[in-house]
C-alpha cells in the first residue's frame, strides 16, 4: 500500500484501485492500492472523507495496512477518493505549531513535553514544569511566533535507530526501526509520524490560551492558524460590544467593570438592608394579627429565601409552628420551635410523595419543592389540617 500523505500531504483527492474488501460485523474494511487518508497517530486524529461518495467512518492501521471503514462497499473497483482538506490542514497547523511550542519550552526553560492532545476546539501539551508564570508564557509565545514569521522549512525523512541518534533529537525515538523524523529548520528535530505543513509560515500564528496545574506539571492550552484567528475574531466581537455597552474604549473596560461591580455591591447591600426592614415589618404584622401558635401563609410575591428569613425571625421572637409556601419557587417550608413535639421531617417523609413533591428535613424543619403550584397548595393545606388536629388533641 502506498501512503500518499507522506509523499504529498496536500493531496485532497485521487483515484485508485481497491485491493481488498473485508466485512466485519455490519462494516466494510476497504484496502486501497494507495491512500492519502491519514490514520490516527502521533497525537493527530485521523482524516475524514469519502470513497465514491461513501463516508469513511473511521480508519484503522494494522501491520502497516490502512483499512478504510465504510457502512457499505463501493460497487466499482476503481474508486474516487476525497479528503476533508480543511480539517486536514487545520490539524497540520496545530501539530506543526505544537512542535515549535514544545521545542520553545525546552530551549527556554528546559521543560519536556509529557503529553499532547489535539482536539476539535483546542490543543494541549503537558510540560514537565510545576510552575509556569505569565511572564514565561509571554516569552515562549513571542519566541514561537518569531520562528513562524521566519518561514523556516519543515522537512521529514525516515531513518533507522542508529541514524536517528545522529540527529539533535528533542526526544528519543519510540521505536527501533522505520523512524520518521520531523525537522524544523533552526528550530526543532523530533521523531513524529504526524502530518505537518511544509514551512512554518503556513502555521500563521500560535496563541497560548491559558495554563493550569496538572499532575505536578503544567498543561498549556493553545490554538494555531485559523483556529487562533477565529478565536481572536470572536473575542474582538465581545470587546466591541463591551465598548458600546460601557461607552468607552477597550483600554478603560476593566476600570469601568470594576466601577460597575462596586456599584452592584452597594446596591445589593442596600437591597438586603431594605429587605430586612420589610421582613421585620412582615414579622411584626404577623405577630400582631395572630392569636395562636400556628402561622400558615402562601406567598405570591416572595421567594423561598425570603420566607426562610421571615420564619427564622418569627422563631426568634416566640414559640410557633410555621407553614410557609412560595408560589414563585413552588416550595414549602415547615418548621417549629423546640417546645412542640412535632417531627417535621417525618411528616414530610410519610406524606410528601402523595403530592408529587420532593424534599425532606429534620425534626424541627423540613422543606420540599413541586413541579406544580396546585400540588404545593394541596400539600400546604394537608399539613395545615394535620397541625390543627394536633392542637385539638
Can you describe this structure in just a few lines?
Helices cover about 40% and strands about 30% of the residues.
Q: What do these coordinates show?
A:
The protein has helices spanning 4-7, 85-109, 134-149, 161-164, 225-246, 253-288, 304-317, 344-351, 373-392, and strands at 2-3, 13-24, 27-32, 34-35, 49-51, 54-62, 65-70, 78-83, 113-118, 123-127, 154-159, 179-184, 188-191, 206-214, 217-224, 294-299, 321-326, 331-336, 357-361, 365-370. The chain is an alpha+beta fold and 393 residues long. It folds into three domains: 2-83, Elongation Factor Tu (Ef-tu), domain 3 (Beta Barrel); 89-237, Threonyl-tRNA Synthetase, Chain A, domain 2 (2-Layer Sandwich), CATH 3.30.980.10; 290-392, Diaminopimelate Epimerase, Chain A, domain 1 (Roll). Strands 2-3-7-6-5-8 form a six-stranded antiparallel beta barrel. It is elongated, with a radius of gyration of 34 Å.
Topology:
Blueprint lengths: L1 E2 H4 L5 E12 L2 E6 L1 E2 L13 E3 L2 E9 L2 E6 L7 E6 L1 H25 L3 E6 L4 E5 L6 H16 L4 E6 L1 H4 L14 E6 L3 E4 L14 E9 L2 E8 H22 L6 H36 L5 E6 L4 H14 L3 E6 L4 E6 L7 H8 L5 E5 L3 E6 L2 H20 L1
Parallel strand pairs: 1-4, 16-17
Antiparallel strand pairs: 2-3, 2-8, 3-7, 5-6, 5-8, 6-7, 9-10, 10-15, 11-12, 12-13, 14-15, 17-18, 18-20, 19-20
Amino acid at each position: 500500500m502506498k501512503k500518499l500523505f507522506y509523499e504529498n500531504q496536500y493531496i485532497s483527492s485521487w483515484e485508485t484501485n481497491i485491493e481488498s474488501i473485508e466485512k466485519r460485523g455490519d462494516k466494510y474494511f476497504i484496502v486501497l492500492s494507495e491512500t492519502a487518508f491519514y490514520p490516527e497517530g502521533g497525537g493527530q486524529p485521523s482524516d475524514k472523507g469519502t470513497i465514491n461518495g461513501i463516508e469513511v467512518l473511521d480508519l484503522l492501521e494494522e501491520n502497516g495496512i490502512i483499512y478504510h471503514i465504510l457502512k457499505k462497499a463501493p460497487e466499482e473497483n476503481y474508486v474516487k477518493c476525497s479528503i476533508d482538506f480543511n480539517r486536514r490542514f487545520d490539524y497540520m497547523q496545530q501539530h506543526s505549531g505544537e512542535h515549535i511550542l514544545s521545542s520553545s519550552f525546552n530551549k527556554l526553560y528546559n521543560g519536556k513535553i509529557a503529553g499532547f492532545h489535539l482536539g476539535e476546539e483546542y490543543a494541549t501539551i503537558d510540560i514537565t514544569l510545576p510552575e509556569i508564570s505569565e511572564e514565561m508564557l509571554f516569552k515562549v509565545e513571542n519566541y514561537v511566533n518569531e520562528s513562524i514569521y521566519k518561514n523556516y522549512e519543515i522537512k521529514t525523512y525516515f531513518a533507522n535507530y542508529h541514524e536517528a541518534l545522529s540527529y539533535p533529537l528533542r526526544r528519543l525515538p519510540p521505536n527501533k526501526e522505520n523512524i520518521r523524523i520531523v525537522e524544523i529548520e533552526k528550530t526543532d528535530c523530533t521523531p513524529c509520524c504526524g502530518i505537518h505543513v511544509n514551512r512554518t509560515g503556513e502555521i500563521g500564528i500560535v496563541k497560548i490560551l491559558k495554563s493550569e496545574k496538572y499532575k505536578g506539571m503544567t498543561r498549556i492550552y493553545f490554538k494555531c492558524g485559523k483556529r487562533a484567528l477565529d478565536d481572536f475574531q470572536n473575542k474582538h466581537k465581545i470587546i466591541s460590544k463591551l465598548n458600546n455597552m460601557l461607552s468607552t474604549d477597550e483600554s478603560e473596560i476593566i476600570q469601568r467593570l470594576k466601577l460597575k461591580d462596586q456599584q452592584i455591591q452597594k446596591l445589593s447591600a442596600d437591597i438586603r438592608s431594605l429587605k430586612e426592614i420589610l421582613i421585620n415589618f412582615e414579622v411584626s404584622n404577623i405577630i400582631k394579627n395572630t392569636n395562636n401558635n400556628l402561622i400558615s401563609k402562601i406567598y405570591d410575591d416572595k421567594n423561598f429565601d425570603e420566607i426562610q428569613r421571615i420564619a427564622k425571625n418569627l422563631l426568634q421572637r416566640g414559640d410557633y409552628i410555621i407553614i410557609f409556601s412560595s408560589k414563585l419557587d413552588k416550595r414549602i417550608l415547615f418548621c417549629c420551635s423546640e417546645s412542640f413535639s412535632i417531627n417535621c421531617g417525618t411528616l414530610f417523609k410519610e406524606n410528601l410523595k402523595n403530592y408529587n413533591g420532593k424534599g425532606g428535613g429534620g425534626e424541627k424543619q423540613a422543606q420540599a419543592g413541586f413541579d406544580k403550584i396546585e400540588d404545593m397548595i394541596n400539600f400546604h393545606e394537608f399539613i395545615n389540617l394535620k397541625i390543627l388536629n394536633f392542637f385539638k388533641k
